[in-house]
Amino acid sequence: MNVGLPHFLTISALLFALGMFAVMYRRNAVGILMGVELMLNAANINFVAFSRYVQHGIDGQVMAAFVIVLAAAEAAVALAIVLAMFRNFGTVHADTVHSLKR
């Protein structure tokens, strides 16, 4: 079986759909952040797949590295926000927290 670009795009679309579902339907802030990470990883799969199947496509791998760095920074900031939510409100449910000011 020859694995080609459509296989990678299908996996990426499924991963992005799962991430979108998690962002839209999860009430827990940690679950929402996991959905965002899934969507970023789906974009990384697209970048790397297109860099593999397009001639002179090293730019996709560089963009994937930037997305990984962005995801790490996003995780650090999001963890700080989740900890502030829990400290101030006693919960990490996004629908019960309306403001971080108290």
Fold and architecture overview:
This protein has about 100 residues and is an all-alpha fold. It has a single domain, classed as Helix Hairpins (Orthogonal Bundle). Helices cover about 75% and strands about 0% of the residues. It is built from three helices and no strands. The protein has helices at about 5-25, 30-55, 60-90. α1 runs antiparallel to α2 (about 30-55). It is elongated and about 50 Å long. It starts with a helix and ends in a 13-residue tail after the last helix.
Structure in a nutshell:
The chain is mainly alpha-helical and 102 residues long. The protein is built from 3 helices and no strands. The chain has one domain (5-89): Orthogonal Bundle (Helix Hairpins).
- The Cα radius of gyration reads 17 Å
Q: How would you classify the helix and strand content by structural class? A: mainly alpha
What is the number of domains? Answer: 1
Give a quick account of the main beta sheet: strands, pairing sense, barrel closure. Answer: none
What best-fitting shape do the alpha-carbon axes yield? Answer: elongated
What's the architecture, going by CATH? Orthogonal Bundle
Secondary structure: number of strands: 0
Beta-strand fraction estimate: under 5%
**Total count of helical runs of at least 4 residues:** 3
Q: List unreliable stretches of 5+ residues.
A: none
Average of the residue pLDDT scores = 86
Order of helices and strands: HHH
Distance between the termini: 59 Å
CATH topology, what is it called? Helix Hairpins
CATH class: Mainly Alpha
The amount of helix comes to over 70%
Oligomer: single chain
